């Protein structure tokens, strides 16, 4: 079973709630008939084969129901987060700006404050107010990124121990506290300083594969929610802010209906352990076909410090491990934890593409300040700037649904799949580089809009690189590869929150065309990524893969 690389349940990147086809039952035994009989005797005892078939069919139907419920609930949660966060971002920026503006004029020119305690938005575009606003938003991203990077692994390990659903439900009171602190700071701005919103930064996890499936739907939701939010902001920014966070809260509450999936993963591990024992029986009879590889045996080791010892030596080894120094035990545990991820060093091309994820995320940090940049440089209101940005998803959807597939089918039809991805990625990074540079240099809205269009044309770069790098690893390494990618992107967020905030503040201080300094810098970073992608060559193992194998990945 473990030896069959094409078994759908043996793939680490396969849906963990997917049921195996009934026809695969006969292919699960790789040893001879004597080994099969012995294994059935050990694991099935006196159960009849007919009863096993009935139980398998019932189990398959039950798993299908749970899987459907799980996917619908999870899709609803992610979509609620997408719609709510996008709807709340614009109003939140406007409220932050009004608070910083009012606090500034209260100290330096109280006469500008109206009877209702507000300052006209047109007077809030000065560099002092915008610098404070950039600091508040940038360092919020920094604290959120740091907490995400530090808490992701402990939360994941805890979820494997006590279950996924309890950990998700545990985030509900934390999310309520997060939202409560943020709203209290904004509502009672005369009591709390604006920077107190930093206390509300809490981590929440992302799953790249799920967002990839929801990509087009999320973009459509982003467009609709941004447009509605901009329209509501012309009345009162608090209205779309409350609605947006209400939608997010509804998505969080959906977590209580999620089914627990830890027992499914446990069953998988038990099934794989049985395959290892079957391979051991086959090797004793001289059949090496089902023998597990060295890397597979290493992955199935437990958390003890035992390194391939015989059964009669196990108690002595455990006693010796207990006496080892603390640092040595920690080193051993760390080595066992990171060993499954050592495959990334097998190919230098993989490391090259992974650096592209890090630099890309670092460069995309400038998008956090795009609405503020448009409002400040071109003297637009934040509602108008937010409405302009809302049209970017409307342009990205046709790109993903029609333009890129058409290019792949007609212009690059003679190329293998990986070669197509590489060529499209090269064109996309050029669009990102030129479009981002144009945004930073545009003296007017008339010049900004074409630059936004060019930048949007390159928005498929990250998906193309993800598809390309996935074809360079084994199927059982795909999930671990995605984990590494997410960690790199979290690190990129942390670095970007500091660097982009500092550069944007520097541009505000310099004034004039230098307000776009952050986009000039990110364009340079995109150029470095582009140079790496253009120097990238497909390794022979990728070029030699068949289309069927690439489709399976």
TrEMBL record:
UniProt keyword annotation of Membrane present: yes
Region annotation Disordered: where it falls in the sequence: 1-56
Subcellular compartments: Membrane
GO molecular function, one term: transmembrane transporter activity
Main location: membrane
Biased composition (Acidic residues): 45-54
PANTHER family from the UniProt entry: TRANSPORTER, PUTATIVE (AFU_ORTHOLOGUE AFUA_2G14230)-RELATED, ZGC:174356
Name of the protein in question: Putative MFS transporter
């Amino acid at each position: 079973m473990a030896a069959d690389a094409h078994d759908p349940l043996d793939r680490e990147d396969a849906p963990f709630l997917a049921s195996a086809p009934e026809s695969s039952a006969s292919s699960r035994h790789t040893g001879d008939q004597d080994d099969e009989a012995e294994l059935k005797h050990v694991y099935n005892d006196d159960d009849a084969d007919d009863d096993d078939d009935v139980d398998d069919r019932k189990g398959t139907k039950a798993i299908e129901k749970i899987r459907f419920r799980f996917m619908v609930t999870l899709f609803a949660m992610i979509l609620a987060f997408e719609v709510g966060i996008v709807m709340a971002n614009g109003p939140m920026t406007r409220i932050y700006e009004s608070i910083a503006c009012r606090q500034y004029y209260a100290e330096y020119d109280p006469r500008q404050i109206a009877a209702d305690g507000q300052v006209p938005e047109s007077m809030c575009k000065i560099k002092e107010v915008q610098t404070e606003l950039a600091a508040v938003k940038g360092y919020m991203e920094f604290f959120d990124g740091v907490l995400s990077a530090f808490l992701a692994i402990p939360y994941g390990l805890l979820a494997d121990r006590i279950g996924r659903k309890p950990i998700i439900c545990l985030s509900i009171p934390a999310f309520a506290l997060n939202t409560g602190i943020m709203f209290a700071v904004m509502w009672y701005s005369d009591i709390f300083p604006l920077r107190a919103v930093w206390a509300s930064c809490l981590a929440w996890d992302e799953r790249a594969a799920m967002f990839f499936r929801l990509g087009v739907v999320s973009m459509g939701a982003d467009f609709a929610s941004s447009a509605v939010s901009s329209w509501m902001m012309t009345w009162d920014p608090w209205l779309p802010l409350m609605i947006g966070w209400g939608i997010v809260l509804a998505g969080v509450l959906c977590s209580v209906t999620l089914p627990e999936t830890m027992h499914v993963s446990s069953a998988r591990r038990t099934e794989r352990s049985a395959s290892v024992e079957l391979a051991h029986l086959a090797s004793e009879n001289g059949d090496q076909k089902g023998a597990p590889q060295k890397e597979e045996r290493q992955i199935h080791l437990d958390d003890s410090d035992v390194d391939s010892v015989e059964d009669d030596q196990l108690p002595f080894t455990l006693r010796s491990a207990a006496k080892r120094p603390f640092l040595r035990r920690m080193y051993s545990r760390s080595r066992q934890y990171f060993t499954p991820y050592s495959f990334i060093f097998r190919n230098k091309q993989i490391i090259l593409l992974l650096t592209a994820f890090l630099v890309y995320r670092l460069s995309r940090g400038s998008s956090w300040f795009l609405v503020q940049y448009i409002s400040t440089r071109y003297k637009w209101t934040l509602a108008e700037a937010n409405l302009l940005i809302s049209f970017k998803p409307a342009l990205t959807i046709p790109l993903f649904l029609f333009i890129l597939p058409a290019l792949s089918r007609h212009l690059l039809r003679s190329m293998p799949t990986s070669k197509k991805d590489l060529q499209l990625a090269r064109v996309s990074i050029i669009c990102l580089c030129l479009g981002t540079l144009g945004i930073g240099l545009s003296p007017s809205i008339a010049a900004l809009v074409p630059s936004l269009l060019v930048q949007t044309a390159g928005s498929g770069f990250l998906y193309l690189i993800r598809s390309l790098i996935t074809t360079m690893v084994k199927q059982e390494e795909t999930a671990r590869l995605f984990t590494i990618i997410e960690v790199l992107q979290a690190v990129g967020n942390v670095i970007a929150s500091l660097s982009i905030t500092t550069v944007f503040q520097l541009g505000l201080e310099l004034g004039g065309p230098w307000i776009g300094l952050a986009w000039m810098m990110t364009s340079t970073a995109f150029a470095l990524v582009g140079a790496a992608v253009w120097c990238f060559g497909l390794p022979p193992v990728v070029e030699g893969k068949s289309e069927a194998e690439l489709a399976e990945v």
